[in-house]
């Protein structure tokens, strides 16, 4: 068994007699429990926001990545011919699953939000739109543009790259911000637990003096404090994680069509597996923080 | 076992004592006397490594305390039983756990049950095993401190004014315990103001009396 695992197991198993050497301190116990619970709750929220943002951006990106739009701007008498030529080009283009010209009613529906339902579409030089659905590895946009330029001069291909790239970048930043928030929460937890441990060690200076008088080694004294704070952090973080999970689960959702940034916050599927990691991580932070504080304090008091 | 060689100790800018040498051999019995503030407690703390000398050397079993690792010092302390003037207990624990504390910190708490009944009977505290230190009288605390000091069967017993807060009968009882330990081969060093205690001890065992005066340690047997 690796020494680190052995140490952790020995710490959790504890030594009842050694634990009793240090009197329970109510204030630091409550502070540690509260801090660990609050920070675990915030971690759950940060995690859910980060995962949801990443999920949403990925979905948008995937949706746009599988579609492209061809816009044909041509004189009215050439519109049908260029549309047919474009459809023919698309029919023989690798990576195109379907290509379909939008009907006049569909174009009308697209423009209605801006111009209202009474727009006389037939009398206006509105471009013709062809909706392309891709398959496999998608289309070679550069090659397709070259062919269209030669055979359909009025066609402009929009493969949605200019929409997709900012979304992917935003998703990366959101994930980064979520990770940063979790790191900051961990650092704050460590700082609070360090303060609580220092307070407990100072309050027990006389106990430490007596333990040293009878031959206690630093590791023995530190272990009594470290174990206590680690278990408190584990307990508090478990409660905070559970509360956070319940609150996130109770957040109102939306239909698939209506799911946006706010209604999509939460965990889905494997995301829930992140939550059981929070209490052990909080305990690990408390372990390191208390051990560091104890070592420094014992060094000073020697 | 414990050697002080040309030791000086300064405190708050002033020198408390200097050029001090002392050797605690197995089976020896020393009393340390001197006026208040002469540095008796400091000298005892140097003997069990709680302080390090400003100059000179204090060696515990041939290892200098200056620069000694804290773990090494802790292991040496298990060979020295200390009875403090103010006893210093863990007030939240019952007497039995306080007396067994040296065994507990050494990872030998399981041995406590074998020693505790006899030890508590020896110091006359069997009935108080479950009481907490603040509930005990001064004499009871002193005897409890002595029981704690000897539970690991240390090679040296160091006591700082062990009879300072107790009556004559109780001090005689405590002295009898120290004499008994000395006859078992333990080295004993007792700091005290109580000349009657020293006289009483001299009647029972060979003791050497040292006096801290004018920053020097001198033999003081003649004046007693």
UniProtKB/TrEMBL annotation, chain A:
GO cellular component terms, A-Z: cell division site; plasma membrane
Membrane topology: Multi-pass membrane protein
Domain of life: Bacteria
Subcellular localization: Cell membrane
Limits of the ABC3 transporter permease C-terminal domain: 180-295
GO biological process: cell division
Keywords: Cell cycle, Cell division, Cell membrane, Membrane, Transmembrane, Transmembrane helix
Protein name per UniProt: Cell division protein FtsX
Protein source organism: Limimaricola hongkongensis DSM 17492
UniProtKB/TrEMBL annotation, chain B:
Gene3D superfamilies per the UniProt record, alphabetical: P-loop containing nucleotide triphosphate hydrolases
Origin organism lineage: Bacteria, Pseudomonadati, Pseudomonadota, Alphaproteobacteria, Rhodobacterales
Domain of life: Bacteria
Keywords noted in UniProt: ATP-binding, Cell cycle, Cell division, Nucleotide-binding
BP term (GO), one: cell division
Keyword Cell division: yes
Sequence ranges assigned to domain ABC transporter in this UniProt record: 2-224
The organism of origin for this protein: Limimaricola hongkongensis DSM 17492
GO cellular component terms given for this protein: plasma membrane
Protein name: Cell division transporter, ATP-binding protein FtsE
GO molecular function: ATP binding; ATP hydrolysis activity; transmembrane transporter activity
Keyword Lipid biosynthesis included in the entry's annotation: no
């Amino acid at each position: 068994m690796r020494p680190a695992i052995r140490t952790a197991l020995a710490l959790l198993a504890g030594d009842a007699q050694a634990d009793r050497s240090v009197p329970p301190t109510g204030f630091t116990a409550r502070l540690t429990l509260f801090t660990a619970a609050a920070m675990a709750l915030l971690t759950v929220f940060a995690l859910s926001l980060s995962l949801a943002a990443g999920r949403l951006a990925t979905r948008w990106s995937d949706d746009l990545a599988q579609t492209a739009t061809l816009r044909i701007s041509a004189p009215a008498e050439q519109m049908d011919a260029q549309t047919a030529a474009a459809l023919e080009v698309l029919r023989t283009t690798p990576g195109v699953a379907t290509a379909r010209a939008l009907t006049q009613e569909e174009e009308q529906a697209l423009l209605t939000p801006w111009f209202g339902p009474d727009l006389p579409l037939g009398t206006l030089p509105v471009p013709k739109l062809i909706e392309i659905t891709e398959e496999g590895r998608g289309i070679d946009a550069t090659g397709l543009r070259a062919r269209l330029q030669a055979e359909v001069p009025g066609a402009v291909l929009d493969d949605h790259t200019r929409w997709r790239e900012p979304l992917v970048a935003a998703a990366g930043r959101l994930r980064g911000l979520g990770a940063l928030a979790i790191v900051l929460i961990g650092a704050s937890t460590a700082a609070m637990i360090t303060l609580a441990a220092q307070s407990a060690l100072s309050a027990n200076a006389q106990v430490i003096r007596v333990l040293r008088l009878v031959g206690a080694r630093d590791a023995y004294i530190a272990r009594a404090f470290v174990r206590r704070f680690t278990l408190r952090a584990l307990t508090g973080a478990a409660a905070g994680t559970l509360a956070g999970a319940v609150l996130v689960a109770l957040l109102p959702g939306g239909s698939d069509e209506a799911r946006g940034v706010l209604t999509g916050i939460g965990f889905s599927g494997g995301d829930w597996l992140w939550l059981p990691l929070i209490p052990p991580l909080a305990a690990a932070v408390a372990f390191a923080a208390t051990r560091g504080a104890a070592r420094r304090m014992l060094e000073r008091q020697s | 076992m414990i050697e002080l060689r040309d030791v000086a100790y300064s405190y708050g800018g002033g020198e408390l004592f200097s050029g001090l040498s002392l050797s605690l051999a197995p089976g020896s019995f020393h009393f340390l006397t001197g006026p208040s503030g002469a540095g008796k407690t400091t000298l005892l703390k140097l003997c069990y490594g709680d302080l390090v000398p400003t100059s000179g050397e204090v060696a515990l079993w041939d290892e200098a305390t200056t620069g000694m690792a804290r773990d090494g010092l802790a292991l040496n302390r298990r060979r020295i039983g200390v009875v403090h003037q103010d006893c210093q207990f863990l007030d939240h624990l019952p007497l039995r756990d306080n007396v067994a504390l040296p065994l507990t910190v050494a990872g030998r708490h399981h041995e406590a049950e074998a020693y505790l009944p006899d030890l508590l009977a020896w110091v006359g505290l069997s009935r108080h095993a479950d009481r907490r230190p603040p509930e005990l009288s001064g004499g009871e605390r002193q005897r409890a401190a002595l029981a704690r000091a000897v539970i690991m069967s240390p090679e040296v017993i160091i006591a700082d004014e062990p009879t300072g807060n107790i009556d004559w009968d109780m001090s005689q009882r405590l002295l009898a315990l120290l004499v008994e330990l000395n006859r078992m081969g333990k080295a004993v060093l007792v700091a005290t103001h109580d000349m009657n205690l020293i006289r009483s001890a001299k009647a029972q065992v060979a003791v050497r009396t040292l006096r801290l005066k004018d920053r020097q340690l001198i033999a003081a047997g003649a004046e007693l």
